[in-house]
What does this fold into?
Amino acid sequence: MDIVNLAGKYRLRAEFLDVGAGRFQEVLNHADEKEPFRILKTSEHRKRHPNTFPCRQGAMDAVVPCDVIEPLMENGLMEEPLTGVCAKDTAWLCDLSWWFIKEFEADSALLEHDEVHLFIEMLDYKADLILNGIPVGHHANAFRPFDKDVKRYLKKGVNQLVIRLTSGTEDYYIQDSVSYYCATDDGTKNQRAYLRKPQYTYGWDWCPSVPTCGIGGRVELQGRSGAQITAFRADTLSIREKDASLDLFFEIDKTDMVSAEDAVLSYAVSFGGKDVLTGQRQLYLSGGLNFVHESVTVPDAHLWWPNGYGNPDLYTMTASVECRNILNEMEPARFGIRTIEMRQDKIDQDQRTFEFWVNGIRIFCKGGNWVPPDSVYLRVSEQKYRHLIDEAHALHFNMLRVWGGGLYAPDFFYEYCSEKGILIMQDFMYSCAYYPDHLEWFVHEAELEAEYQTKRLARFACMAVWTGNNEIAESWTDWWCGDLHAEYDYGKRIYHYIQPKIVMANSPKIPYMASTPYFGSFTKNVREGKAEGMSAFPRWGKHANNPLSGDVHAWNYFLNDPDTRYDSESIFEAFERFPARFLSEYGFYGPLSATSMQKAVLGTELSFIDPAWLFHGEKPEKRQMILQAIAAMFRDTGRMSEEEYLLYGGITQGILYEKLAEAMRRKRYGSGFLIWMFNDAWPETGWTVIDYYLTRKIAYYYLKRAFCPRKMILRSEEGKLLLTVINETDAELKTGIIYGYMSFDGQRKTEKFLPLTLAPHQKSDLNLAPAEKERLDFAYAYAPDKSLESCTDLFPYYRRYRLPQAEAAIQSVRMAGEEWQITVKAQNYIPCVYLTVEDPEQNFSDNYFSMLPGEERVVRTDRPCKLLEIHTADTVYREMSVDVGGQHE
It folds into this structure.
């Protein structure tokens, strides 16, 4: 296949929406390169919103792929929408049509091919394409490429491509009987239900509306002759001793439609640069699509494992097809040898497990929800994707959920996740709305989208489960009830019939579930509240979002349900009681760092009443919840400074994530916790542990410790001292544990030694001893060989404890190889010790940690430690519970 790259420089101009594709010559006449393009805003005459007026002449340069926002910013016609309150001035982008114009050369070699396809990986959104003055296509789905043979429209020499784009919202009413159920308070956003593009770009409860419009991914002409492999996957059937049985599937497209021809398929599977399997197949291909299946055995197979459970080993498939003496090679494709199951074994008539098993081993899924890394998603670089996945790996994540209100990520995202051993829970891109499956054109687009995405992603080792949508089943049972209940379950044709059928055809070894959360139970005992462990929860059975039988989004349970909700004085106990199997969404608010917040508010001095700070997610209800957590754990908040708020708000977010993660890892049927959310599309006070600017929030370090593959968790419950020891690794854990009771100033009592051996991929629950009647301040456990991090049974209501004045010091700083090692020692129990250096964005191997009396810790960093200082987060003792809300004066 010959490729002509059409990315790069284009001319771009805007027109009113009524300037349709048929008026392209008029637009070309306006696009005079000699005139600078301008957009006039006449808001003084139009009070409703700024009225935009594109000048009659001129064009600006745009480097494709891009969103129109990028050249607008480069030409001074728009401010960066994610800083200050600039996002408020973006709605006008939907009021115009956007015209991309490019001249390019086509030579005789290209035109000699059987077919020449115009391939554009992503068009956002409604596109009309005109080639040499001839309309060649219309496209209205950002989730599948435009791919069409345009050879008959091309000519040797200079050609011209014109692409007209609009947001698509102009085609739909502000609100109708379908879009009403988009669950927003702004009717203008509800049109998104009709648009197959990233839904979050019209705003969500965690990001502003920043309308997008542009061209993404690969943009090219593809000269095709003979036959080429258009899809590949390798299904692992079984693993016996050292050998693995695989089914290889190749989709081959032959260009000559009117005849069948001989062809040869050749392939090789390699590992570590050496071929371990080769094959060749004589074929007789018809025109169009052909399907080839090969059953093979890979000897001495290296298995792919999730992060922490073993090595994520990958094989490489190289393949080619020769037809009519034309050899076409497939791009090398990496895949993993692994089996994956989603198990829902029956516990009793009312409850089931919800677990993922890889290679016959139960996996505790640790991770987060992935959202697009930028509100202007077309400008996200591959480097930013790589950095975020590296950070997820360092956090001990082994699963990311690609959230259904965003977009299907590029190929390299799934490549990186496969490299790093990070499983993917992949939503189809439908979220928090009812979708118009009564419209045949929409259903047709849903079919084409699912067909493309399932074929594209089936080969990646990271793929763990397809989920039909985000929270739509839950909305049917929980949100729109009584008189608000819709007369028809809009979208069910897609999630319950079209998608499962296509998944089974294109990626049959990857499980499918119709929604997330899903798998609520309707048994009689559940309805009557008689199921084991849930006598207080009779309502749960009627919900799709049921923690006793499927995955759960815990928002309603922790915040609203009268039987399971918590307040700031009982939150950690609520974590331990909640009988969930798999938390696929839940999170806690935390502020940005001071440096990130100053970037977001354009460098102004931080102020609680700054409109820009309030706009960046600092909603009153968020701030109040953060203040309540601070007041419950550390100190009063009434006279807290902005800097103290950022510090303590970050620490409490981290503690909450840590304790919920520990609670889930202890539970008998606990099988996963995916935080909402891992990364962010814009800078805000929110749930993430790494912010829009790629800076680690304080909570990052707490979650990293909570998700460590080797972990101890200590609790005192019902008069017993209980220790959970986890060894997720593929190596035996052989160590010893010292445990007992300790005072905050370091006195010890009833100290004992326990030898411990734990097999790979195992968890052990130990009843150490009856709780001491005359115990000291807390119970503790640690491994002298440092193979496990120390732990205590303290719930971090630190204000309830009479803690001594914190004493911690830096013992030494030395260089070891290519890293600096900082040794820290505590004299007494300290709830939070942290290090700072001159560069506030410098990362450490650990930070913001509690310390036992006399404990030493070694912290590592990859850069010199300029202006290194050690700090502690102070607590203020509170004799009894008080109002913890707090207001700023």
In short: Residues 43-50, 529-538, 880-889 have pLDDT under 50 and may be disordered. The CA atoms of residues 101 and 181 lie 38 Å apart. The chain has 16 helices and 49 strands. The first strand starts at residue 2 and ends at 5.
